[in-house]
Amino acid sequence: MEISGSINLIGYGLAVIGSGIGVGMIFASVIQGTARQPEARGAMMGTAWIGFAVVEALAILALAFSFVLPL
């Protein structure tokens, strides 16, 4: 049995699943925090957007590496 194709794309798929879970956890925490302390919503949203940007940047890096690195 021969497997042909790029295994890098499987790694990218796993990275996307991980980043989707990460983004979901970030915003779930913001929603829970806002429900507990509505007056702190502004501070939590700023931190959430920074976390969102970092998680998505890692997903974009995974996409770039999946095409650049030969395997």
Automatic annotation (TrEMBL):
GO terms for molecular function: lipid binding; proton-transporting ATP synthase activity, rotational mechanism. InterPro entries: ATP_synth_F0_csu, ATP_synth_F0_csu_DDCD_BS, ATP_synth_F0_csu_sf, ATPase_proteolipid_c-like_dom, F/V-ATP_Csub_sf. Pfam families: ATP-synt_C. The keyword Membrane applies. It is found in: Cell membrane; Membrane. PROSITE patterns: ATPASE_C. The record marks 56 as: Reversibly protonated during proton transport. The chain crosses the membrane at residues 12-31, 43-69. GO terms for cellular component: plasma membrane; proton-transporting ATP synthase complex; proton-transporting two-sector ATPase complex, proton-transporting domain. Keywords: ATP synthesis, Cell membrane, CF(0), Hydrogen ion transport, Ion transport, Lipid-binding, Membrane, Transmembrane, Transmembrane helix, Transport. Coiled coil: none annotated. It is a multi-pass membrane protein. Residues 11-69 form the V-ATPase proteolipid subunit C-like domain. The keyword Transport applies. Key component of the F(0) channel; it plays a direct role in translocation across the membrane. A homomeric c-ring of between 10-14 subunits forms the central stalk rotor element with the F(1) delta and epsilon subunits. F(1)F(0) ATP synthase produces ATP from ADP in the presence of a proton or sodium gradient. F-type ATPases consist of two structural domains, F(1) containing the extramembraneous catalytic core and F(0) containing the membrane proton channel, linked together by a central stalk and a peripheral stalk. During catalysis, ATP synthesis in the catalytic domain of F(1) is coupled via a rotary mechanism of the central stalk subunits to proton translocation. Belongs to the ATPase C chain family. This is ATP synthase subunit c. It comes from Auraticoccus monumenti.
